[in-house]
Every structure is written in structure tokens, then in C-alpha cells.
From TrEMBL:
Pfam families assigned to the protein according to its UniProt record, in alphabetical order: Methyltransf_25
The name this protein goes by in its record: Class I SAM-dependent methyltransferase
Gene3D superfamilies tied to this protein: Vaccinia Virus protein VP39
Any GO MF annotation of the entry: methyltransferase activity
Biological process (GO), any one: methylation
């Protein structure tokens, strides 16, 4: 959890401004919404069990997933972000917690969304995050990742507006997920819109169907 502590402090410091900036962000992101809808449909088709958004921030994606018919809750390392999410979406559950040590039983979830949340993990720590996602997902559960893509470069640190983050080659991140026990269902690359600096990467993955 050592990597999470400075990230929590950094997001605590900007939480109110960040929540205001991100509140209506999805409204203009047609492709992003389509991918979230595809994820929700896959989860519902497979039985509609509980879903966690890990690194939920102020909760706007968690609420969107709720509107898509999922039984969803949010987890974030920033206590201030969680307070804002609870205030904005009183009907939803939000918890302070670390993505690398979730207080969840094995196979507890049918879906996990990591929407720009592993971007702050040091590259050597990402496999541990994926292993934790795999642990809490039931066999056949789905994982949706959103991240900044490196556009032909290796893993690259950049000056994210909150705290240091990393841009990833989509193939490298897919390989790490595969090593953790996930199979790729699909991927999307989105070029930066006006006001965005970097290409966006998305991976839709499914855990192995056999019991561990």
C-alpha cells in the first residue's frame, strides 16, 4: 500500500476541484460510454452479480454503471473523494480502500472496472494489482481497464495534473493481464479529443472460467 499513500494525499488535496471538473465528463465521450455499456451487458448476461469500480474517485462512473443496470459499489484510496461520492450519490455504496489489498473475499465480484486508476501504480507493481483483481473476480468475471496509451513508446511516466502517472503500450498491459489469468475480449484506442494530451487505451478482459 506504500504506492497508494502519496496518491491518496494528492487526490485529497484536489478532490473538490477534480469532482467539479469530472462531473459531466462522460456526456461527451461517446466511445467510452459505448465500452462501459458493453461491459455492463456482458456482466448482466453472465448473471448480474456485484461489480466494483476500483479507484472510483467522486463516483461519476460508478453512478453511470448503476444507471446501466449493475449492482455496483465504489472503492477509492482517497477519503475525501469517498466523502464527495457519498454526498453526490447517496443511494450507492462507497468505501475507502486500496486496490492492491481489497477487503473482499475470493470470487466475490462478477465485474471490476479500473477507470484510469492503475495509471499511478509504478510499472513493477501493476502485476500485483492484476493479481488482486483476479482474486476477487468470480471465474468468468469481466475486467474493464481504461488508461493512457503510450503511442508506440515504452512505459512512460508523465506529469499528470494530480500526481505522477504512466502511459502504457496497450500490448504490454494486455500481456500483464494475460499473465494474471485474464483473456482479452476486446480493446479500444481513442485519439485525444480537444483539450486532451494523450491517446486513451481500453481493455475488456475476462477471467478464466475454471475454479482456482
Amino acid at each position: 500500500m506504500t504506492e497508494q499513500l502519496p496518491t491518496a494525499a494528492a487526490y485529497d488535496a484536489v478532490a473538490v476541484r477534480y469532482a467539479e471538473f469530472a462531473r459531466n465528463e462522460l456526456d461527451a465521450l461517446v466511445l467510452d460510454r459505448a465500452l462501459l455499456a458493453a461491459f455492463a451487458e456482458l456482466v448482466r448476461t453472465d448473471g448480474a452479480g456485484p461489480v466494483a469500480e476500483l479507484g472510483c474517485g467522486p463516483g461519476r462512473v460508478t453512478a453511470h454503471l448503476r444507471d446501466l443496470g449493475l449492482d455496483v459499489f465504489g472503492v477509492d484510496v482517497s477519503p475525501v473523494m469517498i466523502d464527495l461520492a457519498r454526498e453526490a450519490y447517496r443511494d450507492l455504496r462507497f468505501e475507502v480502500g486500496s486496490m492492491e489489498a481489497l477487503e473482499l473475499a475470493d470470487d466475490a465480484l462478477h465485474g471490476v472496472v479500473s477507470w484510469y486508476s492503475v495509471i499511478h501504480a509504478a510499472p513493477q507493481d501493476v502485476p500485483a494489482y492484476f493479481a488482486e483483481f483476479r482474486r476477487v473476480l468470480a471465474p468468468g468475471g469481466h475486467l474493464l481497464l481504461a488508461f493512457f496509451e503510450s503511442e508506440g513508446e515504452p512505459v512512460t511516466a508523465f506529469d499528470h495534473q494530480v500526481t505522477t502517472a504512466y502511459r502504457w503500450p496497450i500490448d504490454d498491459l494486455a500481456d500483464l493481464a494475460r499473465a494474471a489469468g485474464f483473456a482479452e475480449v476486446g480493446r479500444m484506442l481513442r485519439e485525444p479529443r480537444e483539450g486532451e494530451r494523450h491517446r486513451r487505451g481500453h481493455l475488456l478482459l475476462r477471467g478464466a472460467t475454471e475454479q482456482r
